[in-house]
């Protein structure tokens, strides 16, 4: 099964997102848990969440991916921002219990001049405080482009975070194609080598989702600007190899390209056309 979806607005509610996904031939989707540039969240509607879960079961959806707000910085130099990250993380995980089996993706954060080791220690501290044994959600560390003081631009940094978390069985990784390309992992010319390195350092069993995005930037630019599929420096041929790779083809893929719903529908159609059914 090829699980492919895109980022949808949560403003209309859970069931409406599922219906929109079906209308564009998606069988999964990603959404922000709250305002991506702020901290507010809509009141939880358990009935709406239950209706979405029913729709997902009836239509063989892949796992849903909830995305933390960009303002969640678990390794900020500012203690009040770290406290906001802790409170937001805690609230989001409680809300996602209404969508059992979902994934929760977050950017590890920016250490803002404190240094990578300090940043990693602060991220692991928050994870050790928010994860709980009974949770039904898998938390994903996203691979980053390595711009500025970002943590997570190297696989080794994600490994250090995982090693510092007691309930590490609740953790996985979301690989962003634009980010790893911009970080210097050559998925265009050496996808097998990149995956072998990922497996050696983190373990492919930790890889739970793919953000599939082209890049506006050249290789190893350490920037982060997504492009439409086939229109950037990664290209459609590399994307085709990626979605069909034996180590990746079973994973859910989520588009975060600069598109509206019609554009996402066209990209989903394109990617389905180059996916090889076994």
Descriptive account of the structure:
The structure is a single chain. α5 links the parallel β5 and β6. The strands form 2 sheets. Strands 1-10-7-6-5-4-3-2 form an 8-stranded parallel beta sheet. A two-stranded antiparallel sheet has the order 8-9. The chain is globular. The protein has helices spanning 14-23, 46-58, 79-96, 116-130, 155-163, 177-183, 191-201, 236-244, 261-274; strands spanning 4-6, 30-32, 65-67, 103-106, 138-142, 171-176, 207-212, 214-215, 226-227, 253-255. The chain is of the alpha/beta class and 278 residues long.
Descriptive keywords:
278 residues; alpha/beta; 8-stranded parallel sheet
Task: Summarize it.
This protein has helices spanning 14-23, 46-58, 79-96, 116-130, 155-163, 177-183, 191-201, 236-244, 261-274, and strands spanning 4-6, 30-32, 65-67, 103-106, 138-142, 171-176, 207-212, 214-215, 226-227, 253-255. It is an alpha/beta fold and 278 residues long.
Share of residues in strands: 5-15%
Determine the N-to-C terminus distance. 9 Å
Please report the total strand number as a whole number: 10
Q: Radius of gyration from the CA trace?
A: 18 Å
What order do the helices and strands follow?
Answer: EHEHEHEHEHEHHEEEHEH
Gross morphology: globular
Annotate the secondary structure layout.
Elements lengths: L3 E3 L7 H10 L6 E3 L13 H13 L6 E3 L11 H18 L6 E4 L9 H15 L7 E5 L12 H9 L7 E6 H7 L7 H11 L5 E6 L1 E2 L10 E2 L8 H9 L8 E3 L5 H14 L4
Parallel strand pairs: 1-10, 2-3, 3-4, 4-5, 5-6, 6-7, 7-10
Antiparallel strand pairs: 8-9
Helix pairs in contact: 1-2, 3-4, 4-5
